[in-house]
Amino acid sequence: MGSITTLVSPNTPLGQFPAFAYPASKTLLNALTGWFAVELDDTPIKINSVCPGYNATDLNNDLGTQHPAEGAKVVVRAATLPADGPSGGFFDVNGPVLW
Asked: What's the whole-model pTM score?
């Protein structure tokens, strides 16, 4: 929901969602990710956004398509990046996601 590339791509089901606060907040979060990554470029701090996917949780009445442990994989990967790891990106469990 935060990827403008995905939202405006032809035939994406996400493009059918109206512009509510949720996708707007995700897009803002991604913009902040880029800004902080530039600001902290000369430090060892890595700044990235991650998408854990649609996890079955109490928030969505367990309607998510995957167990939260699957969603946690991308979060753990981002939290344990090596010193030469990426910064300023948006990632899901499969890797980089287009902005």
From this structure: 0.76
